[in-house]
Amino acid sequence: MLVLYLPRLHAFLRAKIDAEQRLNESVADLVQSTCRELLQAGPDFTWQGEARFRSWLFTAAVNKVRMRLRSQRTKKRQHDRESAEMEGIVDPRAGLASPSRVAIGSEAGEALYRALDQLKPEQHEVIALARLGELPIPEVARILGRTENAVRTLLSRSLVALSAILDRE
Prior knowledge:
single chain, mainly alpha, Rna Polymerase Sigma Factor, Chain: A, Arc Repressor Mutant, subunit A, 8 helices
């Protein structure tokens, strides 16, 4: 199941982190790290269906991003204090599809990611969780600490905002 969800996990994490974070964090590294931790926890995992697996996978990915973001902020504070240079990591284009498919989808994908970067953080996050991660609304509500109705409203408004940005481009 993990192998089947790798492309979706990569897309989810690519959309989940913002442009500044992508300068310091490789999406492929996040995917690899998330999968490694889940495989290590494998013996403790009890199969409860695909929806529960998906929730487990994308919740772990969200937690990984939050942990890395906290770590980056700590490093940035240390960097500011020490006036040291921080090295950026380039996000490699890892594709599971043929080169022609990658080329065809690249422009549309980049437009989507640029549009997501223009959204407010909470809009970006709800779209990443509900649409890219395909998590059910109750799970998104739990992760965001909001009611289900609030999540539905936020998701609806976020998709409208995303659509308006894409239309302008």
